[in-house]
User: Fold these one by one.
Assistant:
Number 1:
Amino acid sequence: MKSIRVLDSHTGGEPTRLVLDGGPDLGTGPLAERAARFRTHFDAYRSAIVNEPRGSDTIVGALLVPPDRAGCTLGVIFFNNVGLLGMCGHGTIGLMASLAHLGRIQPGRVAIDTPVGAVSAELHPDGAVSVDNVAAYRQARGVAIDVPGHGTVRGDVAWGGNWFFLVEEHGLPLELAALEALTDFTWRVRQAVNTQGYPAVDHVELFAPSPRAGIACRNFVLCPGKAYDRSPCGTGTSAKLACLAADGKLAEGAAWVQESIIGSTFTGRYRWHDRTKGEIAPTVTGTAHVMAEATLLFDARDPFCWGIRTQP
Ligand code: PYC
């Protein structure tokens, strides 16, 4: 029987399933090319690892691969219930905590290759992890989208390792009690954004003040497969920092504490990467906890051996 060894962690409530061995052999070359190979030839692995019955819509998988970019010591390709992610902030924090648990890294920095660029992650002595993400920027400001059944919704389109539509004014309470309404609204926004000029946007992020002192704001992030991010979303926080920097609302180096819908937090900071292009170098800090070590078993007689594929 085929088997795949995994280590599960969560970062602020959002799970990461790290594939240690038994995953698909994607060969060599740039990670973007290997990610394309994963998508085209090995999608069954993706589904089998993160989808039901072994997984759930919320799990993000992390496939460890040899790096391609000079100076990187490892490579990772993140994936979810419906496809691949460019980068994943909570997943990188989970990856670092998992490698520390396995004794493979000590406090210090690791340069990591991803399909969208090299990132650098630092494991701190207390177990927290800071991720120096790929450069983030706002592509468009105050875009008006006509959302059927709702009306006009304005938001910014920004890159933080994935594409986001960021909405400040939405009129919904960012509370778990409103989860259904939040999911329904953000899904409709996503579809409208995709058909009204921004087909690459696959995350929608809403903001509201936090009821807790010392927190800059709360977010709700709808991920590509219609699950909401339990963490404050590392790439979403990077996209937010890019918008704040572009608007002159956050100074270089100042801390931005981003709270998720379940109350977990990341601390974000930025440095200008290229001010003329509006590109920032974001750093997102958070903590992950290891939860399970497991061997996934693949029985050829099992009709759901390769997972139940969901396409919302
Ligand atoms: O933390 O970047 C992130 C992320 C993306 C999707 C889920 N989490």
Number 2:
Amino acid sequence: MKIITSIFDLNKEIKDYKNIGFVPTMGGIHAGHKSLIKASQDKKSKTIVSIFVNPTQFNKKDDYKKYPRNIKRDIAILKQLNVEYLFAPNSRDIYKFKDEKFNLKKKDKILCAKFRSGHFEGVLNVMNTLMAIIKSKDLYMGEKDFQQLYLIKKYLSKKFKVRVNSCPTIRLKRNLALSTRNKLLKANSLKKASEIASFLKKIKNKSKLQDSRLAFNLPVYKKKLEKKYNIKIDYLEFRDEKSLKLSNFKNKYRLFVAYAIDNVRLIDNY
Ligand code: AMP
């Protein structure tokens, strides 16, 4: 695996490749990331994984500081997976480009966009820069971050003529979605988060039978969960998969949740 840190070197290295599969990450490589890499490799693409903990998408300094980083371990895993390129730029290099400022449309200021002001603008800006550098044919992203996937498709896929491949969420046995942030949780909170995931999965399955009546009950579930697990839930909503509008249960929909436990913010959808 070639490890490249400068944009100049990366450009030189990949300029002749036509079939690049790009897997952007913030590191802390886990089985969720691995599934994206595998999807790219299955298409016989030259796979570039990026690791960049993007400061501008953190709306809290402390969250940025404590975000788990372990580049040595990540490199060892990526080598084992036979990834061709790791791109690990530094902030100075990435932000020497003039930022194209993305502003979310009003109707997109829902879910995490409502609760993490500036987060997705930061994501879109850095993805705009990374995609301009890498010019991949395919991009691989996880449904775990469903709103991110939705916004990248909406704001960037046409501009870069890139195919955005959405990959299913990889979970632990007890339903908790893998996430780099899980490393910040104490054992007790990990257990709670798994219970919450199992409960919400059940609600989603039930909703297929009882549809809108359950949506009506979500505020009750929200309160119950907050009390039982001592968590703060930002949102718990059924939303349409295609439009992210509140679901009317006629089209495919998902149950979206974001909550803080141990001061760690977790998101998921079922
Ligand atoms: P992150 O490093 O958390 O920014 O994630 C990098 C990419 O991996 C994003 O496209 C995520 O949606 C995806 N990802 C993160 N966790 C999972 C998971 N449990 N299953 C599938 N994809 C994931």
